[in-house]
Amino acid sequence: MKMSDLVADYIFRMLDESNGDAEIQRNELANLLGCVPSQINYVITSRFTPEQGYIVESKRGGGGYIRIIRVTTDKRVAIMHIVNSIGDKISAATARAILNNMLQQDMITHYDYNMISSALSDKAYSSIPQEQRDTLRASILKNMLATLVVLNQ
């Protein structure tokens, strides 16, 4: 497992144990997990965004902290926010990260995750020219997520 996944998993566990509101000391967490503090920053900025349902607050200085708050909202609304945040192109890795976050937040099932991941994989686009894959992937991801919203009403 990659270090960024370990950091994210640790923070997800903290959020689960504290009912969606976790306060961390960046340097302490980095020491605990054996990584550099910038790795903590990277994970927070890439996996705990408003589009993914989080508010991040920080206070700098000696007693500084980073507070991550999971916003509880209607699942359909959250999925539509994700759909609207996807641009015209998306890489397979970014799509996978979005789906992983959605799975961890119980926005999609394991079945949904596997089906959508299969439809977005580079293997599925092997006959499509490389320069067109990310555009097609974004369109398919948006349509599949929007369909989930309609089916789960």
Termini gap = 36 Å
The percent range for strand residues is 5-15%
The number of helical segments is: 7
Strand order of the largest sheet: 1-3-2
Shape: globular
Helix content: 55-70%
Architecture blueprint of SSEs:
Layout: H1 3-17, E1 21-24, H2 26-33, H3 37-47, E2 54-59, E3 65-70, H4 75-85, H5 92-104, H6 110-120, H7 130-151
Antiparallel strand pairs: 1-3, 2-3
Give a structural overview.
With 153 residues, the chain is mainly alpha-helical. Helices cover 59% and strands 10% of the residues. It contains 7 helices and 3 strands; from the N terminus they run αβααββαααα. The chain has helices spanning 3-17, 26-33, 37-47, 75-85, 92-104, 110-120, 130-151; strands at residues 21-24, 54-59, 65-70. The chain has a 3-stranded antiparallel β-sheet with strand order 1-3-2. Helix 1 (3-17) crosses helix 3, helix 2 (26-33) packs across helix 3 (37-47) and helix 4 (75-85) runs antiparallel to helix 7. The longest helix has 22 residues, at 130-151. The N and C termini lie far apart (36 Å).
Condensed summary:
The chain has 153 residues and is mainly alpha-helical. Helix content is 59%, strand content 10%.
Key traits:
153 residues, mainly alpha, 10% strand
